[in-house]
Amino acid sequence: MVKQTRIGTAGQSPAPRVSVVVPIWNPGPYLDRCVNSLLAQTLEPGQYDVVLVDDGSTDGTGDRLDALAEQHSHFTVVHQPNSGWPGRPRNVGVDRATGDWVQFVDQDDSLAPDALRRLVALGDQASADIVIGKVSSNFRPIDQELFTTTRMNASLLDTPLINSVTPHKMFRRGFLLDHDLRFPEGKRRLEDQLFMVRAYLAANVVAVLADYNCYFYLQRDDKRNAGSRKIVPARYYRFLEEVLDAVVDGTEPGELRDHLLRRFLRNEVLRKSTNERILRRTQAERHELWQVAGDLVERRFPPSVVEGVTVLDRLTARLLRNGDEAGLLDLAERRSAVSVGALVESADPIHDAAAPGWRLAVSAELQHRDGSPVELIREADGSWLLDPRLFPDGQLSHHYELANDLAVADAAALLIHRGWRVTWPVPASWTSEMVPIEGNRHRLVFRALLPVYPGAVAGRPELDYGAWDVRVRVRAFGLRPIGPAALGRLPLPRQPIRLDGVTARLRSTAPPRQLRLVVSGPRDADPGPSLPPLIEESAARPLIRRAARLLRRQG
Fold first, then answer.
1. Which of 336, 359, 378 is the last residue of a domain?
2. Could you write out the DSSP letters of every residue in 452-507?
3. Are residues 213 and 284 in the same domain?
4. Do 295 and 396 belong together in one domain?
5. Residue 532 falls within a domain, yes or no?
6. Using H for helix, E for strand and C for coil, what is the string for 512-538?
7. Residue 505 and residue 358: Cα distance in Å, rounded?
8. What percent of the residues of the chain are helix, what percent strand, and what percent coil, each to the nearest 5?
9. 271, 303, 336 — which closes off a domain?
10. Rounded distance, CA 128 to CA 361, Å?
11. Which end of the chain is more exposed for a tag (fewer CB within 10 A), N or C?
12. CATH of the domain at 135
């Protein structure tokens, strides 16, 4: 039962284009950045409203929200008894929403200033049911593959759409109502993934906005962001089975079902069983997770799904089914020791008055902790096997031949802002080649020419002020490490790029020498359109001070 509701003038005609729904529970000072980002939207207040659902806060938040609604007529506050999780507050928010669109935002997150306007415009243009805005985070990994280009209609089979299963997206309100799309309520895990699977399977059109960073996950000082809670395996995987049920119920047997099940097998079961985090768990915690995960692999994932994952993931599934905990621990240690060795071999200016920049020749490969390459073994029959050093004793066999893995192995380059962790993929065509080492041993080397532009080029916005690291991610064999682009002894161009008051320079870090791009402008200039606005709480201040020092030193 809702105890109290305080409503401004939101909801009066004409109806707003979008309603922002924010579930709130004891946010403390971290609510400020969320609220400030909503107040800073470029849409006029009459074009959007905000529904703040207080889920029984006990830290004085309720009074703060009521004061906020008194000050801003497009803010609505709903008070309700604590439900224990975001599902019910989100549902209540949708019930109170009046906009054509609904955007979900969490209390410790932030929207960029022009996010709502751009998302609504793309949704209208694409006649979409769901619109996904580009996301960045300064503390959690975000798969950027979906955001390589803006998409008018992303499909589950042809794009990595299913890798984005958080609900911080924009939904056509009529679509939610027509399909009775609701979040599971009560204290439970994976309510967002269950909601998103059902939504994706019901949607006719899903649009992706990739050329503007819309949404920010920013770490709290206390590191207690939503979603950071430790999992209890039995409960977690019981809720995962509901997600798997939704996949099976919403698809026919075949390629799409296997593709979706494979995502949850890979991301929620196999990699949680052998990632670096498992090494920090106690023996009892590992035993519990592996027992539950092994049972789940045996019961819920048919051979057509398991055989479609990469070589080290197939090995993980086998070890889980066999209950080989020593092998799982050994594999986790071996996987965590693999990194990316990326080298900038040349850096040449791009002499284009309208779009100046640099062209970087980069090579990258997987390597072990001692710096030696991950090797591929060419068998007499022409097949390829993966480096035996990645396999626990006695596990390497021809069952793990690499034909399919080699076909999908790839690399990507990223520009990552040092302060806010905004991430932009660098568009490039990568090639791969087998480089002989000795005998039948080879290295798999990826190469690309990376065009790096500080200004706006080909649908990309200009880079925000500050320092940007150049990093390379290699994805192969079930490994996805990301690492810095090293310079070795390569001298960098001394001449900066100047364009419309912006200055950009290539820099190297202190040894080991790694490539960094520094973008600066007038000292009193706005930091850029993509960064979180009006951040006031203490979590942001060290980042702001660090960015200011960097600009003074290197600008």
1. 336
2. E-SS-BTTBPPPPSEEEEEEEEEEBTTB--EEEEE-TTPPPP-PPEEETTEEEEEE
3. no
4. no
5. no
6. CCEEEEEEECCCCCCCCCCCCCCCCCC
7. 10
8. 35, 30, 40
9. 336
10. 39
11. N
12. 3.90.550.10
Domain co-membership, 16 together with 120: yes
Say if CB 202 and CB 249 are below 8 A apart.
Answer: no
Q: Cα separation of 454 and 503, whole Å?
A: 9
Residue appearing with tokens 């096997």:
385
Please answer whether residues 264 and 248 qualify as being in contact, where contact means their C-beta atoms are separated by less than 8 angstroms: no
Give the whole-angstrom CA distance, residue 272 versus residue 514. 31
Domain check: are 369 and 329 in the same one?
no
What sign does the dihedral 403-404-405-408 (CA atoms) show? positive
Write out 140-191 in H/E/C secondary structure: CCCCCHHHCCCECCCCCCCCCHHHCCCCCCEEEHHHHHHCCCCCCCCCCCCH
Please say whether the beta carbons of 18 and 101 come within 8 A. Answer: yes
Tell me: do 51 and 166 sit in the same domain: yes
Do 471 and 449 lie in one domain? The reply is yes
Note whether 320 and 343 are same-domain residues. Answer: no
Residue 222: inside a domain:
no
Burial 27-36 (b: 16+ CB within 10 A, else e): bbebbbbbbb
The full length of the chain comes to 555
CA-CA distances (angstroms) from residue 491 to 21, 257, 322, 363, 487? 51, 51, 53, 17, 8
C-alpha dihedral sign at 282, 283, 287, 293 = positive
Asked, for residue 458, whether it belongs to a domain, the answer is yes
Per-residue pLDDT of the chain (555 residues), as tens digits, is 455 454 444 444 578 999 999 999 999 888 998 999 999 999 988 999 999 999 999 999 999 999 999 999 999 999 999 998 899 999 999 999 999 999 999 999 999 999 999 999 999 999 999 999 999 888 777 888 999 999 999 999 999 999 999 999 999 999 999 999 999 998 888 999 999 999 999 999 999 999 999 999 887 665 565 555 678 899 999 999 999 999 999 999 999 999 999 999 999 999 999 999 999 999 999 999 999 999 999 999 999 999 999 999 999 999 999 999 999 999 999 999 999 999 999 999 999 888 899 999 999 999 999 999 999 999 988 889 999 999 998 777 656 788 889 999 999 999 999 887 889 999 899 999 999 999 999 999 999 999 999 988 776 778 888 999 999 999 999 999 999 999 999 999 999 998 888 899 999 998 889 999 999 886 545 555 555 543 433 334 444 444 444 444 443
484 in any annotated domain: yes
Domain hosting residue 120, numbered range: 4-217
The residues near 232 (Cβ < 8 Å, ≥ 6 apart) are none
Domain total of the chain: 3
* Tokens standing for residue 229: 């809670």
Tokens 């359109």 map to which residue? 529
Q: Do β-strands 441-452 and 357-367 pair in parallel, antiparallel, or remain unpaired?
A: antiparallel
**Is 542 buried (19+), middle (13-18) or exposed (0-12) by CB count in 10 A?**
exposed
Joined together, the tokens standing for residue 22 give 């924010």
* Residues 456, 324 within the same domain: no
pTM of the predicted model as reported, rounded to 2 decimal places: 0.89
